[in-house]
């Protein structure tokens, strides 16, 4: 447990499962009081954290509903009296190609992945300001750094990158830092049912493997903590060197012996 995190409060969305649950567990183990928010039931994860000696509470939140955000932040203010961190982690992916993406799918993905974090930042920032400032971490994706075949997912994750930079400028005077994290392929239920896609994608990753959830958690914890105190409006890519190297790794593999 770090002394730095003790007594500090962080809200993690999408904390009932996947990487969000991992972030919540690790941050609690580090001393953060963790507010777990999810449209699904995050009680089992909060119970687990408390059983391990941590501080946590589970809350139902649909990130697409501004009024639900307002109610949750009022609850956090009443219960904890402060908020120092927000991890906008909740997200959905619909792997539909451009011409197959219906208006309904487009709106659903944009609502959860882009509107949700915007509402969350608006709702949480005043309490963070009143708490002496804090750090917001937006979980984007490498699909928010390159063109990705699913237009709803890629556009929503690019939007989150822009939202990060806009909020970083606006909220600096309140002592609030805002950064984005861009994971590559990470082993979670989000990728369930896409084995062929995953094995083929791994062949393009210079590290030759998917990322582990804890490798993303470590970067989230860094951005929430004092070690990144002069960092805002930035982006950290956690992808085994995929985006920085394009497809050269795969091309060289396929041309082995012919160069
Ligand atoms: N897994 C990957 O390879 C990968 C790569 C890059 C980025 N990401 C991003 O990381 C984040 C977490 O991904 P994951 O793989 O852990 O996903 P996941 O599907 O395992 O978990 C997502 C969580 O978000 C919750 N959620 C969905 N809609 C919600 C809503 N409207 N309101 C509140 N909560 C909602 C779900 O209930 C779930 O608990 C997402 O933003 C995702 O886009 C994942």
UniProtKB/TrEMBL annotation:
InterPro entries under this entry?
KR_dom, NAD(P)-bd_dom_sf, Sc_DH/Rdtase_CS, SDR_fam
Annotated EC? 1.1.1.100
Give the superkingdom in one word.
Bacteria
In its UniProt record, a GO molecular function of this protein is: 3-oxoacyl-[acyl-carrier-protein] reductase (NADPH) activity
The record, for SMART domains, names:
PKS_KR (SM00822)
The record's annotation in SUPFAM superfamilies points to: NAD(P)-binding Rossmann-fold domains
Q: Which family does it belong to?
A: Belongs to the short-chain dehydrogenases/reductases (SDR) family.
- What is the designated name of this protein? 3-oxoacyl-[acyl-carrier protein] reductase
Please name the source species: Nocardioides simplex
């Amino acid at each position: 447990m770090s002394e730095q995190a003790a007594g500090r409060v962080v809200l993690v969305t999408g904390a009932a499962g996947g990487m969000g649950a991992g972030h919540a567990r690790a941050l609690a183990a580090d001393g953060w009081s963790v507010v777990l928010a999810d449209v699904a039931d995050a009680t089992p994860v909060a119970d687990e954290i408390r059983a391990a000696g941590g501080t946590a509470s589970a809350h139902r939140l649909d990130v697409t509903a501004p009024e639900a955000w307002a109610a949750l932040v009022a609850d956090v203010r009443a219960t904890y009296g402060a908020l120092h961190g927000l991890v906008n982690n909740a997200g959905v992916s619909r792997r539909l190609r451009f011409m197959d993406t219906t208006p309904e799918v487009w709106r659903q993905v944009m609502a959860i992945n882009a509107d949700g974090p915007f509402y969350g930042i608006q709702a949480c920032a005043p309490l963070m300001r009143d708490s002496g400032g804090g750090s917001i971490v937006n979980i984007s994706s490498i699909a928010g750094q390159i063109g990705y075949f699913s237009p709803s997912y890629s556009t929503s994750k690019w939007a989150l990158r822009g939202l990060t930079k806009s909020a970083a400028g606006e909220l600096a005077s309140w002592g609030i830092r805002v950064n984005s994290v861009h994971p590559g392929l990470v082993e979670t239920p989000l990728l369930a049912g896409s084995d062929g896609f995953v094995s083929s994608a791994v062949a393009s990753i210079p590290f030759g493997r998917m990322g582990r959830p804890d490798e993303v958690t470590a970067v989230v914890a860094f951005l929430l903590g004092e070690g990144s105190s002069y960092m805002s409006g930035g982006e950290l890519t956690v992808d085994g060197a995929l985006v920085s190297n394009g497809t050269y790794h795969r091309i060289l593999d396929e041309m082995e012996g012919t160069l």
